[in-house]
């Protein structure tokens, strides 16, 4: 049984950066529906005993194309939003520490450069999708983006450690068409301590 994470903060705790109604709708409606449908479709496909990472990395094992796509879309919707909502804090660490801090400086030059690359990836993703910071198989870091609810597992890109949702449902109630303003706000509540922990887990 795949379950939504319990939000580690109140629905209004990310105000004014991410508003209460958006969190309530995004987590309580969109994410909830993805999760319920993923459970249903994973069971139908006979893969519900596997982890979400295993399922999303091995979609070709599901022969029926319509069912495979349903597992991909809803499994991505389940998994991506668990990552998304888990990484925020009303009192976030403003910068990474330890191994991730060193790796970001080595790869991108600075945290600001990385944030600029993520913002570009997120603003130039046409339509609905996600921008990601990924640890590739060789241990290097990469900024990338995917369409719809695809993610680094379904696209065989590596292990995601930061998930930036740019579907309109993530920002439209407060920011309307201003996706770049939402992205700036995203970084105000992103807890780099949690991203750093994800990195440590990915490279251990
Ligand atoms: Fe979303």
Please state the CA-atom Rg, rounded to the nearest Å.
Answer: 16 Å
The share of residues in extended strands comes to: 5-15%
> Count the helices. How many?
8
The CATH topology annotation of the largest domain reads as: minor pseudopilin epsh fold
CATH class of the largest domain: Alpha Beta
| General form | globular
Tell me the series of helices and strands, N- to C-terminal. HHHHHEEEHHH
Distance between the termini: 27 Å
Low-confidence stretches: none
Helix content: 40-55%
The CATH architecture of the largest domain can be given as 3-Layer(bab) Sandwich
Largest beta sheet: what is the strand line-up?
2-1-3
**Overall domain count:** 2
User: How many beta strands in the DSSP annotation?
Assistant: 3
Mean pLDDT: 98
CATH superfamily of the largest domain: Iron/manganese superoxide dismutase, C-terminal domain
- Helix/strand class: mainly alpha
The kinds of small molecule bound in this structure are:
fe (ii) ion
Mind describing the biggest β-sheet? 3 strands, antiparallel
